[in-house]
Amino acid sequence: MNVELVTVGTELLLGFTVDTNGAEVGRACAAAGIRLVRRTAVSDVPADIRAAVAEALDRTGIVITTGGLGPTQDDATKAVVADLFGRPLVTDPDVAQSLEERARRMGRWPMAASNRTQAEVPAGATVLPNPRGTAPGIWLEDPAGRIAILLPGVPREMRGLLHEEVLPRLGQRVAGAARVVRSRTVRTTGVAESTIADRVGPLEPDLAPLTLAYLPSVDGVDLRLTAWDLAAGDADARLAAGAGRLRDAIAEHCYGEDEADLAAVVLEMLRARGATLAVGESCTGGLLGARLTAVPGASAVFLGGEVAYADAVKIDRLAVPAELLAAHGAVSEPVARAMAAGARTAFGTAAALGVTGIAGPAGGTPEKPVGTVWLAAQWGDAARAVRVVFGGDRDEIRARAAQGALNLLRRLLAGA
Asked: Which candidate among 53, 214, 373, 395 keeps its CA 20 to 30 Å from the CA of 314?
């Protein structure tokens, strides 16, 4: 079954509101074996809504809309779709009663006249009760079998109606044995997308009918395998086998699957060894510590860190020798190593990280351009340091530096 999604709201196009509804509908449909083939965002202009819904119905015969069901003048979806189906709007007595009871219960009586419009539905439509809000969902179907499913734009309300009302109804219409669309993601970091492609590319023909997508971000490159329209057991077996082949191909660059977080992976590796961790960071300005403390239970492993931005703080708080700073500069291998060693000594930990670099946009030189970062890791008597030149703006460089530091320690712990 193919469906399309039309998200309605000028705020989506202006960028003031992120379209989380689109992502939720996509994930939910895939899990239910329903293929979402197109997502379209349109403004609150009636003509734009009508065109998008009509085109979607022409292509697939089933369209889901989100937004535009409220009581204000810019909420035009319901009236537009009713007109498109040639149906008048009529007051649903059950919805009207529910609205009145809600208004009395919340101390908003008498109810505003505009709220009463939310009880209007296209004649012949099925009302989808919305216990989380005032605007009900609407299921509208014509003799030709075309279906328009109208959902509110408030994410919490939309999500409830989608899972409780819409997907069960659509699932009943999926012919034959249950089929699913499922994905599995292998997460990598510290390696370029082109290098991964060189390693993984030759495997792609053997992964069929699974499809493979490369998803680069500041954290690394995710490899997402997707099984389309397969029986659940077959999909799971193929995804497991395919993920295993990808992990073997990229080996030391893989740190987990699906929602794995590198900070959590490193903390678990240290927890399994009964070890603790401290950090000394400069250009990341506390971002590395924030990544670690965002993991529930981090306090069992991560003892703390020092944000040593100024050279004087590096000297006073992390015991970085002044002569190293004078001879090599703050962004250098000796200083990064000394920061890690200083953090380890200050906090009495078995493992430590040091990060120092030039995040920009100014401060770079021909020898040390913007994006130059030195990372150092210590684990017991073992230590490593690496120089990396990260691309991107200031925020991206800092995020990549924090990820790179965690990955350096991961590899040191793994002996990779």
From this structure: 395
